[in-house]
Write a structure and sequence with these properties.
- By secondary structure, the chain is an alpha+beta fold.
- The chain has 5 helices and 13 strands.
- Strands 1, 2, 3, 4, 5, 6, 7, 8, 9, 10, 11, 12 and 13 form a 13-stranded antiparallel sheet that branches.
- A hairpin with a 3-residue loop joins strand 2 and strand 3.
- The protein is globular.
- The two termini are 29 Å apart.
Length: 275
């Protein structure tokens, strides 16, 4: 299926318009569960197009392995090295028309997409991969804008709930969670605040779970107050030692950012041309 980015935008806008009222109701009602507002839209794109996006995902050797006690997954934003459809679907989610409808669904205004894909891009998780409970970095790289929303588009066909690799939303003590199935062709919208704890359950099968990630930002604080935090991890309720390690690790990294506001090391952002 040969299709342009603008055509993908039109398809996304049409689907969001159809599902807008239902998604808005779900987003508003979800606040009473674990405290993280969210909703999802099924059959986001025509099935053939979603399959094409899945089959275009790069090989593992073309991606970066993130591996620590916090997480294990493959990521990349080197779109200029891959099939153009991956770049098109990613940046279609940042189109002004898409942002406008997402604002209507969530009620979160003044949202700004991030063309540098700070923390966004492609991710793949294989057997044994996971992402422990965490809250996202509160800002983009310049620290001018607050992170407000995660947009997660899952494209692995026939992905069963029992496969793991599912999004988990946690209440603030990180003791109780709600599981959101990483179902094929499903777009999940999840708010980002200092209490939006979330994770990805360990993958249980010898398959790759593929996701296209985007994040929106805003000059307005989601809480109405100023704050800043690095990506901060906890652990699953039974992982007592890992929770203690994560707490110390968070304190250390937060302290470093207080001393060096721009952070240390190179920024993992998208640059046209892949440089």
């Amino acid at each position: 299926m040969k299709i342009s980015k603008n055509e993908i935008v039109e398809l996304i806008v049409a689907r969001l318009q159809t599902e807008k009222a239902r998604a808005a109701d779900m987003f508003a009602a979800s606040a009473g569960k674990v405290g993280v507002r969210h909703c999802y839209i099924e059959n986001m794109l025509p099935e053939a197009l979603a399959m094409e996006i899945y089959h275009a995902f790069p090989k593992l050797e073309q991606m970066r392995l993130m591996s620590s006690f916090r997480e294990k997954k493959f990521t990349s934003k080197h779109f200029d090295q891959f099939n153009p459809i991956l770049k098109d679907i990613t940046f279609a989610m940042q189109d002004v028309a898409v942002v406008s409808i997402i604002e209507e669904i969530t009620g979160i205004t003044q949202q700004i997409p991030d063309p540098t894909l700070y923390a966004g891009g492609l991710s793949m998780m294989g057997e044994g991969h996971f992402l422990n409970p965490h809250i996202d970095n509160s800002h983009e790289a310049t620290r001018q804008f607050y992170r407000t929303l995660n947009l997660l588009f899952y494209v692995t066909p026939d992905w069963e709930l029992g496969n793991g690799g599912n999004l988990e939303l946690w209440e603030p003590s990180v003791r109780k969670n709600e599981t959101i199935h990483s179902k094929f062709n499903r777009l999940v919208l999840m708010e980002t605040t200092p209490s939006s704890w979330h994770s990805v359950s360990p993958v249980q099968v010898d398959r790759l779970r593929c996701c296209v990630s985007n994040y929106y930002f805003s000059p307005v604080s989601p809480t109405g107050e100023q704050y800043f935090n690095v990506t901060s991890f906890s652990a699953r309720p039974e992982q007592t030692a890992r929770r203690a390690l994560a707490w110390a690790d968070n304190k250390l990294r937060q302290g470093v950012r207080a001393l060096v506001p721009g952070g240390v090391g190179p920024k993992d952002v998208y640059k046209a041309g892949g440089k």
